Amino acid sequence: MQKIHNGAAIIITNNSCSKFFIQRKDDTYPLKECRGCISLFGGACDDDEDSETTIARELAEELVLDNIKITPKLWRNFRLHGNQFANTYEITVFTCFLTDEVFEELAKQIVRPQVVLEGLGEIVTREQLCKWSKDTSKFFASLDVVIDEFLQQH
Predict the structure, then answer these.
(1) Distance between CA 40 and CA 29 in Å, rounded?
(2) Max CA separation in the chain (angstroms)
(3) With 80 as the cut, is the pLDDT of residue 78 above it?
(4) Distance CA 69, CA 98 (A)
(5) Burial of 36 (0-12, 13-18, 19+ CB in 10 A)
(6) Do 44 and 54 contact (CB within 8 A), yes or no?
(7) Are 140 and 39 in contact (CB under 8 A)?
(8) With contact defined as beta carbons under 8 Å apart, do 16 and 101 qualify?
């Protein structure tokens, strides 16, 4: 039987869901075919972790923000077959809604070095995500499915 991998990710948006903070895999990402792909902050669960522990660890590993608290709220689970992977995986997706004021502060901070420690942080509009979600090759590990579902519901 094929092992199913588990992970956790977070959608970070403003309250009106008009802007999103995403991660883009950069040139240092080990899998060349994933470089440049749109992703969410998060990652794989370690063997002894639940999804809440994983997302807290991943946020601490990937982001260093001053006076901005990213508070994950459980949204839903997905079973996906990653675009770049041979395996099926389950991902627990969290959300974090920020006020416009806090989101603007986030946008100011991510341009500084050593704020986003893995990949590139990028602020994108809802319209950009809607357009990109039509091209699954732009997304890391089939996260287009997650983002498309979120956009439909919010």
Answers:
(1) 14
(2) 49
(3) yes
(4) 9
(5) middle
(6) yes
(7) yes
(8) no
Let me know: does 50 contact 67? Beta carbons within 8 Å: no
* CA 1 – CA 140 distance, rounded (Å): 25
Contacts (Cβ under 8 Å, ≥6 apart) of 50: none
Cβ(25)–Cβ(34) below 8 Å: yes
**Torsion angle of C-alpha atoms 14, 20, 45, 59, degrees rounded to 10:** -70
Over residues 102-121, the pLDDT tens digits come to 999 999 999 888 889 888 99
Spatial contact of 43 and 54, defined as CB atoms under 8 Å apart: yes
Beta strand 5-14 pairing with 19-24: antiparallel
- Token couple for 111: 């341009």
pLDDT, mean of residues 20-28: 93
Nearest to 66 by CA among 106, 99, 100, 95: 106
Q: How many CB atoms within 10 Å of residue 72?
A: 23
Domains of the chain in sequence order: 5-153 (3.90.79.10)
Dihedral of the alpha carbons of 50, 51, 55, 58, in degrees to the nearest 10:
60
